[in-house]
Write a structure and sequence with these properties.
The chain has two helices and 41 strands. The protein is an all-beta fold. A hairpin with a 4-residue loop joins strand 36 and strand 37. The chain is globular, with a radius of gyration of 23 Å.
Length: 449
């Protein structure tokens, strides 16, 4: 495993192009594009203000930079650096901007969610979509890029509109059986649209492309309900994380619950491997205590850590949430399937330092990773069953069916890893600190052996 030098970035704005060739990072109002393999700067663009959001077009030819405070969007071309586009929403403001799947249209959501404006880069045509709902996930595109589902709110009722992305004509418009729609998401095969209610009512609805209600699922009533929803890449499973600290798995044939995964404070399962991170400080020799070493911020005083396997039963640290505060830190907020749909990783918010890994073939717990600090982010390798996670310290953690490893990030000044992203090849990871980033290269040859 090798690490690159450290580069500057702002607001965690750093993305690899969809084709995997380029790395775009934002530093205040500048956009820097590098070659992923050499990390040499290819293009440097200057925006009109500090960048709030940045994204690549699907064909890796254009980059969108949004400046929400100014209501501005600037688009840059990689092939023609002199070409640029500026979209000014004016006094109506801007709260969100994103590419359409074809990479030639931009969808801007105005302040107070008054409308969504669709701008064409090719024809300069403008289309307006009224009544978009302000919610957790109100817009989603099907994986093939053909359809867009949009949550709407009008006359105190929730609706979903399905648009064809080619010419933005309305394909279907139907009312949903929700009190306060919180989000929607297409299945990866594009056949089913999952819609879920706000946390005040446990309800998940499944609609076909033509707006027919296929099934309704509700686990319980009169208590805080759905907190997270995600599809497996195979579209066979829909995982629902709830405030009751459980994950329920629905199947794609009958849309009934096939199992539920609990997150108990005491693990008695002898088949699950519990990895506990243990820290140890290295002894410091007097030769290392030079002023140069200390001022350069070397990894001299960093604590080393390793994983130990704990025999059952194991007690998991639990934080009791304050019932008087809004958005209590309880329930399953994060769900992620591995690329082959074999494993599901979950995080229960009142056990913030623990990641649970479930085997979807055996429908059982396979591993528990107990960290010394709260887990900030975890993400699966896009090519193989390998999970990377970070906890806001100078380490990177990796889990695979073969075991668990803790790796010190050897950077000057100590990069505190706040979040991470895999390269689409699975050969490298982008590690993001508060104002810095570095790349971590996996030793693929060694793994294959």
């Amino acid at each position: 495993m090798n690490f690159s030098e450290v580069f500057k970035q702002s607001n965690q704005l750093c993305k690899v192009s969809p084709d995997g060739k380029y790395l775009a990072t934002c530093v205040q109002y500048r956009l820097v594009v590098r070659d992923v393999s050499t990390l040499q700067i290819l293009q440097l663009y200057t925006c009109l203000d500090q960048i709030s959001y940045m994204d690549w077009s699907s064909d890796s030819l254009f980059i969108l930079c949004a400046m929400y405070k100014r209501g501005l969007v600037q688009v840059w071309s990689l092939e023609q650096p002199d070409w640029h586009c500026k979209i000014d929403e004016g006094s109506i403001g801007l709260v969100s901007s994103r590419w359409s799947p074809d990479g030639r249209h931009i969808l801007n959501t105005t302040e107070f969610h008054l409308r969504v404006t669709v701008w064409s880069l090719c024809t300069k045509a403008v289309s307006y979509i009224k009544y978009p709902k302000a919610c957790q996930k109100g817009i989603d595109f099907s994986r093939d890029g053909c359809y867009m589902a949009l949550a709407e709110r009008r006359d105190c009722k929730d609706y979903v509109s399905v648009f064809v992305c080619d010419d933005w004509h309305l394909l279907r418009h139907f009312e949903t059986e929700t009190q306060d729609l919180a989000g929607l998401e297409w299945s990866p095969n594009g056949c089913v649209l999952a819609v879920w209610d706000s946390c005040l009512e446990y309800k998940v609805l499944l609609y076909s492309l033509d707006g027919r209600l296929l099934s309704t699922y509700s686990a319980y009533e009169w208590s805080l309900g759905v907190k997270s929803v995600t599809w497996s890449p195979s579209s066979q499973f829909l995982a629902i994380g709830s405030f009751d600290e459980k994950v329920r798995i629905l199947n794609h044939i009958s849309w009934k619950k096939i199992t539920q995964f609990d997150h108990p404070a005491s693990i008695n399962n002898t088949k699950a491997v519990v990895y506990k991170e243990v820290e140890k400080r290295t002894a410091v020799g007097t030769d290392d205590l030079s002023l140069h070493n200390i001022t350069m911020g070397t990894t001299l005083f960093n604590t080393q850590s390793k994983y130990e396997i704990c025999p059952a039963p194991v007690q998991i640290p639990v934080v009791k949430p304050d019932p008087d505060r809004a958005n209590p830190k309880i329930g399953v907020s994060t769900l992620a399937f591995s690329s082959d749909s074999r494993y599901l990783a979950t995080k229960n918010d009142n056990m913030a330092s623990v990641v649970w890994v479930w085997d979807m073939q055996k429908l059982s717990l396979v591993a528990v990773l107990e960290q010394t600090s709260a887990v900030r982010c975890f993400q699966w390798d896009p090519r193989r069953p390998r999970l990377a996670l970070c906890t806001g310290n100078t380490k990177l953690y990796l889990w695979s069916p073969g075991g668990c490893v803790s790796v010190q990030v050897p950077t000057e000044g100590g990069l505190q890893v706040q979040s991470l992203n895999w390269h689409c090849s699975g050969d490298s990871l982008i590690l993001l600190g508060k104002e810095q980033l570095c790349l971590c290269y996996m030793d693929i040859d060694q793994e294959d052996k």
